[in-house]
Design goal:
Elements (H helix, E strand, L loop, with lengths): L6 H27 L2 H24 L6 H9 L5 H16 L14 H20 L16 H32 L9 H23 L9 H21 L21 H5 L7 H15 L9 H8 L3 H11 L4 H18 L8 H7 L5 H12 L3 H8 L1
Helix pairs in contact: 1-2, 1-8, 2-4, 2-8, 4-6, 6-7, 7-8, 10-12, 11-12, 13-15
Length: about 375
Amino acid sequence: MLFDFGPKSSVLLVFFCQAVVFSGLLLQKGIKNQNNASKWLSLFVFLGCLYIAPFMLGYANWYSQKIYREILFFIPFQQLFLIGPVLYLYAQSLLDQSFRFSKNQWIHFIPALLYTGYSLIVFITDKLILSDYYFYADGRDKDFDLWYQIAGWLSMVFYLILSLQYYTKYKKIAFETVSFANSVLFKWIQHFFIAFLALLILRILYFILNPEWGEFGSKFWYYLCFSILFYFIALSGYSNTVKSSVPIRKLSPDTPNKPSNKQNSGESIIPNIENGKAALEKLMLLNKLYENPLLTLSDVATHMETHPKAISNLINQGFQMNFNDFVNHYRIEAVIEKMKSGEQNTKTLLGIALECGFNSKATFNRAFKKNTSLSPKEFLVKLS
């Protein structure tokens, strides 16, 4: 098979092969661990492979040979209407263990299916019905038509916005429902979104600087940058394929955990804010619930024999905090008490923090500074 191993085609081939490998590894990992997020990411990475394929093969002189040119013409390699929806479904499956692909989700694939149908019509017309090209009379690949490139770019922008909104919702629910929110924020996915945003910005800048979408021109530099950023996405995605510990639906403040009869009837043992605050403070101090590093809003609601939403509202309105900050406040107070009693002389600060419910040094330092405006070491100096 013809493949001209020039500098440009060879460089893109390296990235193409690496992406194919990562796509296969992610799919294998997703099947083995029954992790839907890995499967969606595998498809996302594979779509990136297809995206650079026409230019990699073009620089390898495929467009100069009829048999290879027709492969590039009639196979829709650049699935621009598919990349965005797959990104969005990946974000949902990563951040919500309870997420399952349903019939309603097919609506996201309608544009991609329509474009596939259009590509099929082009193939049947130009190859099976007419003796001469009709759609390809101009000799230019339909994947690079101006309308399709712009519509595809807008589709990816739209689904990036949806993904960011979903992640924002996830963060909010995490801070409102668990006391270990910083440990399950998937901060790496923020870099993932930034890299994808960079790809979109790069594309629009290239359009402004070189609007000839159907010509190769200086596009190599764009596709090289695309390959580098996409390689980062594939690598970081593979190294961070873990299941979410905070399913959005299951830990939503609106969802009760093992409701009692009072919960089912809509009753609450919290008659007013002040009484509720006093009861909650007593519970936290006497039972030392904050020492549980995996404490959730539902756990507290179970102790209070009420609905998680009632506890959430009580903390928001009565203490002007979210659940995560509320619990961390008690943990910091417990750490300070241990510092004042001199336990830091026989234990490490991290050891003290872990005893009080923190599950990492970074989370402890962040929470301590937020509550005291000082780092733990600065507080010790001030204390001494």
